[in-house]
Write a structure and sequence with these properties.
This protein is mainly β. It is built from 12 helices and 52 strands. The protein has a 22-stranded antiparallel β-barrel. A 5-stranded mixed beta sheet has the order 10-15-16-13-14. The radius of gyration is 34 Å and the shape is globular.
Length: 1022
């Protein structure tokens, strides 16, 4: 009995203890708007007992002690620790993490808190990437990163250009280095990466940040981090867009009546109007009657001996070069994992129709990544991106460099009073009877220009945490990165013998290009914090290799149906060739980071690079950098300024290099040539052929690195409780030992040699400002502004020269300056005598008499004295302005982009009266003598001698790039649908120019045409 009583008492005590130790807790995790947070981590502090919230933000935890604390975390929100205090039901509201300066950003070979960064950088996050649907990453960056100037290209599958803080080099490349998932790319960009797979893009701008990449970082560094798996619930996401686009043209062409008046005036002045000055039916028929079909339309204007141009029909040629383009893009991705393994996978498909017939682009992308942590002291992972692209390039005239670049422009060149087919539907090859005006209307069916490319890029790593294995070495890590990159490109061109490019022959062309490269990095990290001191070291040994081989063949074939697959069918090979390029680079780097009291920051680095492209004995060089940071907001004297949350000053200086000249350029080579010995013609070799398009340059055994040293002073700030934040940077760089060709006396056997000569300077300012203008419970308005300005100039040229007119290089002037005669109007009839002094007549272009041998205008127009600087290709400044308005679940945004103070080379026209012409204000004696353009027919087929002086237009513009309206469904609205998020949106892409000083081109694109469209999209999370 006693034993039973003892057992009962013991059992009761155990039950009471168990009840006291653990109970069931239920709760809900919400955001500040009382919306459920799905997937938040809820953990009993100090234990492994945890769970995640469901679709309603709810959670249940069993076995929770009454005195326990719950730690609740979710990405983008401030973690919160909540005491249970005997409760069984909890409601937890997480606050958003507004400390943007504490976000982690990617720097060279590592990551840092943004608050600890000492260099100048800009970031485009996933939110900005998704702000507007884009086909490549550069489109998403345009106007959103201060100091980064990006131009556009609307041909499907084509990329624009990018410059970071202007131009530095005169001959070597000015393009940035791309780094994807820690691996520097070689000879390629990021055009093949699906933008939906990109997590963030960090742009390193100043030399103190880019010097970590040594020679490759001279023109800035763009670091792309692709998406990877995250711990937590497995998620499935789909995003899709459908776009409808049409091409618009800012140029208005002359109609039939206008062109006929224009052409007659030109021919009368040039004495080619049947040697007559009298407009008559007979003269018209003699001059314009070579095409019976077109003449039948032309002569409609003659009624009873009177001319009425309005009776002549205008054929709309360009409508045949336009189509409504339908583009659709789909991306399906999955992500998830545990603490030991995280994985991400995605598949994307893009089908982009061109707004011109014959143009199109299809892209398939696949990405997968996995990160494994099998034990606490070892991690490894891999990321693989595979892209296949198939581009229909469309028609372009390839028989010379001056022909139409696409079908639309070829059709635009047709005379407006002619037509493509006769009344029986037969094709007219030369509408209007001019042998140099060939009808292109069938070219899309007669020509094929197909370009395929396959790219596989990988990033593999293994990381050993030595400090976890050996506690005395806490903070020591070793990491190895390996990045293989493979690209295969194939171009096939087929031109029928009936086509303009074929011109009587069935032509097939086939070319391939294979690029293989790899990079391997061995890295050692050591980070230690002792009281107020934090210290970090990074050591790097890196090696990389690049291999490119190509081949091409062109032949006349039996049938255009053979395309490029049977090029020897006619045994008529026109040309064939192969090529090989191989380069290697080896590097060593050391970097030290020091911080005191989280207030005073310093980064010092040094990198040694060796490049195979340079001469023996000059392949290696050293590139140092220093950056300092001062977090003023941490100082005691700032604590009273409660409206200042964060304020950091930065100063950096660094040297980078540029070895970007062609491989083997320092080796020298020889040309094959033919010699006449009597009646025999024998082949031989010569050092240099002066008549060649690109004569070989002499070898230079002392060619070394082009170097750029840059100074940067910047400030990062956040004030008024985060309502205003941003950064301001001013910088100055000097580039020396420019890689340029120096002229040589021809008696040496060469005309030029590569050498390290010349210097340039560049200075500028970058400003980024983010503001929250209005913030209420239901409505918010935020803005993001970027502003950039830079000024570059040449400070020294080769051979002691102060100018190189052929290349437009002038000491003291910007890189990319334009040097020409200065347009000063058109000579009027009342100025006949004055015009005669300059050898001109009324109706001709007036050139400003600037100077003469005595330093004053001399009454003559002389190329040595009267040319001047008439503009620059680089803008004085550029900027972007994004405004976002949110009301409950609705979001409206609009994005403005502008470039100011740059010159567009456009406007010069040859007014011969022979070819189609845009509407313009031309000189007519006694009728329109205040015209902008000279009289048609001046100097016949060549046009006015000084017509190029009209070729410089102010390209300043402001463009409304995007307007977007979206609706985000709440968790409550989605209910039990199984969806975690759902967004529907519609966007207007490229609504148009709000301001432009030139009315016949789009200065953003450089041509007259642009695409405008509407996008409808959906984002779904499961």
């Amino acid at each position: 009995m006693k034993n039973r009583l003892l057992f009962l008492m013991l059992f009761s005590m155990m039950a009471m203890f168990a009840f006291a130790q653990g109970r069931s807790i239920k709760g809900t995790v919400l955001d500040p708007n009382n919306e459920a947070i799905i997937g938040a981590n809820v953990l009993v502090e100090g234990t492994t007992n945890g769970t995640i919230t469901d679709l309603g933000g709810n959670f249940t935890l069993n076995g929770v002690p009454t005195n326990a604390k719950l730690k609740v975390t979710y990405i983008g929100y401030i973690s919160q620790t909540v005491p249970v205090s005997g409760k069984t039901t909890l409601q937890i509201i997480l606050k958003e993490d507004a400390q943007s300066l504490d976000e982690v950003v990617v720097v060279g070979y590592g990551v840092q808190k943004k608050s600890d960064v000492t260099g100048a950088l800009a970031r485009v996050g996933e939110k900005e990437m998704k702000a507007m649907p884009v086909q490549n990453a550069l489109q998403a960056m345009q106007g959103k990163t201060a100091g980064v100037d990006i131009t556009s290209n609307e041909r499907p599958g084509e990329m624009g250009s990018i410059r970071i803080r202007g131009e530095r080099s005169l001959k070597a490349t000015n393009g940035p280095l791309y780094v994807v998932d820690g691996i520097p790319l070689q000879g390629t960009g990021i055009e093949n990466i699906n933008p939906s797979d990109i997590e963030s893009i960090d742009v390193l701008k100043d030399a103190s940040a880019t010097a970590i990449y040594g020679s490759r970082g001279a023109n800035g560094v763009i670091i792309v981090s692709t998406k990877r798996g995250k711990s937590g619930k497995l998620t499935l996401n789909y995003s899709g867009t459908v776009s409808i686009e049409n091409m618009h043209d800012r140029v208005e062409m002359m109609n039939a009546a206008e062109w006929i008046d224009f052409s007659r005036a030109a021919k009368i002045r040039s004495n080619t109007y049947n040697k007559s000055t009298v407009i008559s039916y007979d003269n018209d028929k003699k001059v314009f009657g070579n095409d019976p079909v077109a003449w039948a339309n032309f002569e409609k204007g003659w009624v009873n001996g009177e001319w009425d141009g309005s009776r002549v029909n205008t054929y709309d040629w360009t409508k045949e070069g336009l189509q409504t383009a339908l583009t659709h893009e789909h991306t399906l991705s999955a992500s998830g994992g545990t603490e030991k393994m995280q994985a991400y996978a995605s598949f994307g498909f893009l089908n982009q129709e061109g707004t011109q017939p014959g143009q199109g682009y299809q892209r398939y992308t696949a990405k997968t990544s996995v990160d494994l942590t099998p034990v606490d002291w070892f991690k490894l992972g891999a990321s693989i991106n595979v892209t296949y692209g198939d581009q229909d390039y469309g028609y372009n005239f390839r028989k010379s460099v001056t022909g139409a670049s696409n079908l639309y422009f070829a059709l635009q060149g047709m005379l407006p009073w002619t037509q493509p087919y006769d009344d029986n539907g037969a094709y007219i090859r030369n509408p209007g009877g001019d042998v140099n005006i060939i009808n292109p209307i069938r070219e899309t069916s007669l020509c094929l220009n197909q370009r395929e490319n396959l790219r596989a890029f990988g990033s593999f790593y293994a990381e050993l945490n030595i400090g976890e294995m050996i506690p005395v070495l806490d903070g020591l890590k070793y990491r190895m990165n390996f990045g293989p990159d493979f690209r295969y490109g194939r171009t096939g061109i087929a031109d029928s013998n009936q086509s303009i490019n074929g011109d009587g022959n069935n032509v097939g062309q086939y070319s391939t290009e294979i690029k293989r490269s790899w990079t391997i990095d061995n890295l050692i990290y050591y980070n230690k914090t002792v009281k107020k001191h934090s210290l970090g070291f990074t050591l790097l040994q890196s090696a990389s290799a690049y291999h490119m081989e190509n081949s091409s063949i062109k032949a006349f074939v039996n049938s255009d149906e053979e395309l490029w697959y049977n090029l020897n069918s006619a045994g008529n090979i026109q040309n064939a060739g192969t090529g090989l390029v191989e380069t290697q680079m080896e590097s060593y780097m050391i970097r030290a980071n020091y911080g005191f009291a989280d207030k005073y920051l310093m980064t010092v680095s040094g990198r040694w690079d060796g490049a195979s492209m340079l001469a023996d004995g000059h392949k290696w060089d050293f590139f140092p950098s220093l950056a300092l940071g001062w977090r003023m907001d941490r100082e005691a004297f700032m604590q009273k300024l409660t409206w200042v949350e964060q304020l950091k000053l930065r100063f950096g200086v660094g040297t980078t290099g540029n070895s970007a000249i062609d491989a083997y350029a320092t080796k020298g080579s020889v040309n094959s040539n033919f010699y006449h010995f009597g009646d025999a013609i024998l082949s031989g070799m010569v050092p240099c052929d002066p008549s060649a398009k690109d004569p070989i340059v002499m070898a230079n055994r002392k060619l070394g690195w082009e170097k750029t040293t840059q100074y940067n002073l910047g400030v990062d700030f956040s004030v008024l409780n985060g309502r205003i934040g941003g950064s301001v940077d001013i910088y100055k760089s000097k580039t020396s030992d420019l890689l340029m060709t120096k002229s040589l006396p021809s008696l040496t056997g060469y005309l030029a040699i590569w050498d390290n000569i010349g210097k340039t300077e560049n200075k500028g300012i970058d400003i980024s400002i983010n503001t929250v203008n209005i913030q209420t419970n239901n409505f918010s308005w935020s803005s993001a502004l970027t502003f950039s300005a830079d000024r570059s100039k040449v400070t020294e040229l080769s051979n002691g020269k102060t100018e190189d007119i052929q290349n437009n290089w002038f000491v003291g002037q910007p890189i990319g300056t334009y040097y020409d005669y200065q347009y000063d109007g058109i000579w009027k009839s009342s100025e006949k005598d004055e015009a005669a002094k300059y050898g001109r007549t009324p109706g001709m272009i007036k050139i400003k008499d600037i100077n003469g041998p005595e330093g004053v205008p001399d009454g003559k127009i002389d190329a040595n004295y009267d040319r001047t600087f008439v503009g620059s290709a680089r803008p004085d400044w550029s900027g972007g302005f994004l405004n976002t308005f949110s009301y409950r679940n609705w979001e409206l945004s609009c994005f403005l982009y502008g470039r100011f103070g740059f010159t567009v080379r456009s406007g010069a026209e040859t007014l011969s009266g022979r070819f189609a012409m845009r509407k313009l204000d031309y000189w007519v004696e006694g009728t329109n003598e205040d015209a902008q353009y000279y009289a048609p027919g001046v100097n016949g087929e060549s046009g006015d001698t000084y017509k190029n002086a009209m070729n410089y237009q102010d390209g300043s513009f402001i463009k409304l790039r995007n307007v977007s309206l979206g609706y985000n469904f709440t968790k409550r609205q989605l209910g039990k649908t199984g969806l975690s998020n759902l967004k529907l949106y519609a966007q207007c892409m490229n609504p148009g120019l709000l301001y432009s000083k030139v009315d016949y081109i789009d200065p953003d694109l450089g041509g007259s045409t642009y695409n405008r469209g509407f996008v409808f999209g959906i984002n779904i999370g499961f």
